[in-house]
Amino acid sequence: MKRDGTVSLMRAMNKKSAWVALALLAATAFGAVSARAAERITLANGYNLICDHRAPAGVPLGSRVRLYMDSAGKNFIEVAPAQIASSEFVKLPTPAQPQKAPEKAEANLTPAELHQLLSDAGQAHDLNADLLASVVREESAGHPHAVSRAGAQGLMQLMPGTAAKLGVSDAFAPGQNIRGGTAYLDSLLKRYHENLALALAAYNAGPAAVDRWHGIPPYRETRLYVARVIHEFNRRVAARRAHALTQVASK
């Protein structure tokens, strides 16, 4: 039986305020070449995007802006011009050595593919895919190349040291990241005897903080993080149940 761990909350919490930087893998975007300029764009929602170049898009032309993640123009996202708060040119360092390309480029990872990765990982660890999707949404907003100010990487925001311990060689590869993040969350749930709130707090602030405070640490960010993930999980579970009831009623 799947571990749902549903916890009701009185109300939804505010949207995450921490900045998340979407960084290119230098090897795949630029190769082993000298340092070059890229554009760092800050969006109105607080996200930083490192992009190779941009171009007008949409109908009429210019109603959207296409931000390209690589010089070849294969990976991109589109935003409204009003969503761009500021921009500046930055120098990207030359990689010490080439790195392998991610399993799936961000722009090509469809919702269906993401759901499949989450479902496969959830099945392997007996975890609800909606719970994993809620963590991914809070951690990275679904961006495989997300990098936090602390250095956490990928969809489930694995710190490099944690990723290494989990056998994740490329944290920007969606499949590897999700498998590693799911295994880590599973270990935390077992450590805290299936207490979802404590497991999520440890995922955010680290097990040492949870153990030190004998519960959810009194950190505003961590408390909001736990509340938001559980709220989103409950929302997804409720929506799925409502959809199932609708399907049964229509037969």
Please give a structural write-up.
The structure is a single chain. This protein has 251 residues and is of the alpha+beta class. It has two domains: 26-92, SH3 type barrels (Roll), CATH 2.30.30; 106-250, Lysozyme. The protein is 41% helix and 16% strand. It is built from eight helices and eight strands. The protein has helices at 26-29, 111-125, 129-140, 160-165, 174-191, 196-205, 207-213, 220-250, and strands spanning 20-22, 36-43, 48-51, 53-57, 64-68, 76-79, 84-92, 146-148.
Features:
41% helix, 2 domains, alpha+beta, 3-stranded antiparallel β-sheet, Lysozyme, 8 strands, 5-stranded mixed β-sheet, SH3 type barrels, 8 helices, 251 residues
Which helices and strands appear, and what pairs or packs with what?
Blueprint: E1 20-22, H1 26-29, E2 36-43, E3 48-51, E4 53-57, E5 64-68, E6 76-79, E7 84-92, H2 111-125, H3 129-140, E8 146-148, H4 160-165, H5 174-191, H6 196-205, H7 207-213, H8 220-250
Parallel strand pairs: 1-3
Antiparallel strand pairs: 1-8, 2-3, 2-7, 4-5, 5-6
